[in-house]
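Hypothesis: this fold can be encoded by more than one sequence.
Test: take the structure tokens below, design a sequence, compare later.
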């Protein structure tokens, strides 16, 4: 039988098999339960096994756990008998919040003190083992607070879970001294502001972890030791003046094509992309941070960005939800967006570029740029012309995107390129420099770009100057530079050019 966070039966049927032998006749219940151990999943291999078991055996499959997550396994003499997953608690649950006497303000301030048992699976087999599920629950909850403190730096005082009443009665949770708080409304979140009625409410069960846990959670003022690990700081401020927001949204509407189906669009392309652009410029990382930034905007700022007016109001506006940001950013044309943003920044600072600095940034866990070496002869020629030894070139990280930003000292973005997957930053920059007007510009870059080909091209073909760094890992060039620069600087004779 399968057991999960939707409830478990009292008598789980199973057989204990391990290595090359089977346990034969089961000993007494007391002996069996005394030898059950619950521990954290260790290593990537066990985590993969844990997730595969849930995906294969659990009726809800593996949990798409968010926030802080801990994975447990229950063992009997080295054999896995159950797996559990705990994660961050739900954002809002009316029965839970009423039980804790929490007003809306305290939900955000104290939700980090709650955890959710999102998955619970007793491994299926034959045989009878009474009270296994409740035993595993008690052992897991007994160590959860300590593990949570060690892993995330703050305690957890209460655990919640959902039981599907159409499948289970929650017997094991009742046996483990959990308390039923009533049923949910049966709504499932779709994005930030939209909900779908599933017509399938769940039973909510909770259990406090230790004496005094409820008293601490219900206290009018939260203890200082419990505030650590609380809600993140507020979103960063808007990086531009409110009056400039309209021009950004207008630039995006003019220069970026909307790839979405016109039917059913609730938020305009300009408002979504402009909001995301400002959020990223302010330092936000990821769609969730972008959404929080959007929600922090006042209604005047939202109107400037062209956000959708709130139905039934005169001056209020809605911002896109997280799902809208994710969907649109996944299909938007990157080159069009880059050109629009660079053009908009040029309107803010129209002064000619005198100094240009470029440097690469690696974005971890991002899809790499597609390979383009074979399709672009200039890129292939630049890669071949580089005289940097292969062992001195920057290695490319797996599952990462390398972006090279071309900026002025005032942080004005002039251009941006993505490094193709089949090459490196040095070759991509060398191929892109001829496409830029650099006449009279001082180009600054780090030592990775200090090559003869780059120096010759910038000075002889594009009329630019350069300031490159030279390190000791290029001994011949370093020694020659020391010899040339031993006298007065800058060199004045033809021999020093």
């Amino acid at each position: 039988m399968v057991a999960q966070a939707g409830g478990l039966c009292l008598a789980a049927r199973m057989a204990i098999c391990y290595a090359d032998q089977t346990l034969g006749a089961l000993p007494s219940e007391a002996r069996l339960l005394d030898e059950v151990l619950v521990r954290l999943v260790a290593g990537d291999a066990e985590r993969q096994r844990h997730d595969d078991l849930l995906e294969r055996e659990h009726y809800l499959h593996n949990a798409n756990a968010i926030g802080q997550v801990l994975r447990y396994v229950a063992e009997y003499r080295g054999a896995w008998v159950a797996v559990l997953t705990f994660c961050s608690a739900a954002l809002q649950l009316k029965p839970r919040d009423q039980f804790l006497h929490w007003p809306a303000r305290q939900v955000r301030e104290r939700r980090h003190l709650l955890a959710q048992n999102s998955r619970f699976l007793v491994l299926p087999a034959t045989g009878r083992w009474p009270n296994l599920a409740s035993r595993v629950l008690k052992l897991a909850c007994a160590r959860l607070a300590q593990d949570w403190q060690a892993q995330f730096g703050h305690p957890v005082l209460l655990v919640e879970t959902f039981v599907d009443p159409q499948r289970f009665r929650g017997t094991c949770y009742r046996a483990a001294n959990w308390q039923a708080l009533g049923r949910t409304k049966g709504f499932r979140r779709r994005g930030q502001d939209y909900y779908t009625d599933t017509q399938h409410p769940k039973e909510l069960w909770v259990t406090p972890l230790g004496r005094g846990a409820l008293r601490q959670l219900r206290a009018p003022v939260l203890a200082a030791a419990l505030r650590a690990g609380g809600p993140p700081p507020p979103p960063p401020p808007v990086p531009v003046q409110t009056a400039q927001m309209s021009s950004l949204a207008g630039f995006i509407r003019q220069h970026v094509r909307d790839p979405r189906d016109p039917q059913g669009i609730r938020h305009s392309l300009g408002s979504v992309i402009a909001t995301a652009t400002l959020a990223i410029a302010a330092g936000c990382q990821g769609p969730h941070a972008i959404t929080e930034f959007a929600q922090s905007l006042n209604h005047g700022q939202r109107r400037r960005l062209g956000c959708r007016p709130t139905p039934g109001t005169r001056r209020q506006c809605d911002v896109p939800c997280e799902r809208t940001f994710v969907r649109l950013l996944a299909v938007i044309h990157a080159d069009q967006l880059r050109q629009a943003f660079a053009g908009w920044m040029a309107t803010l600072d129209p002064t000619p570029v005198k100094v240009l600095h470029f440097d690469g940034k690696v974005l971890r866990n991002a899809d790499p740029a597609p390979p383009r070496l074979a399709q672009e002869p200039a890129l292939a020629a630049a890669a071949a012309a580089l005289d940097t030894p292969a062992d001195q070139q920057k290695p490319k990280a797996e599952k990462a995107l390398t972006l090279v930003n071309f900026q002025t000292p005032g942080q004005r973005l002039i251009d941006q390129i993505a490094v193709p997957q089949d090459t490196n930053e040095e070759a991509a920059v060398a191929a892109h420099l001829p496409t830029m007007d650099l006449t009279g510009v001082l180009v600054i870059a780090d030592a990775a770009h200090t090559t003869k080909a780059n120096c010759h091209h910038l000075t002889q073909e594009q009329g630019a100057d350069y300031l490159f760094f030279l390190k000791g890992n290029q001994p011949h060039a370093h020694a020659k530079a020391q010899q040339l620069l031993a006298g007065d600087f800058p060199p004045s004779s033809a021999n020093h050019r």
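The domain at 11-227 is CATH 3.40.630.30 (Aminopeptidase). The chain has a mean pLDDT of 81.
Hypothesis status: open.
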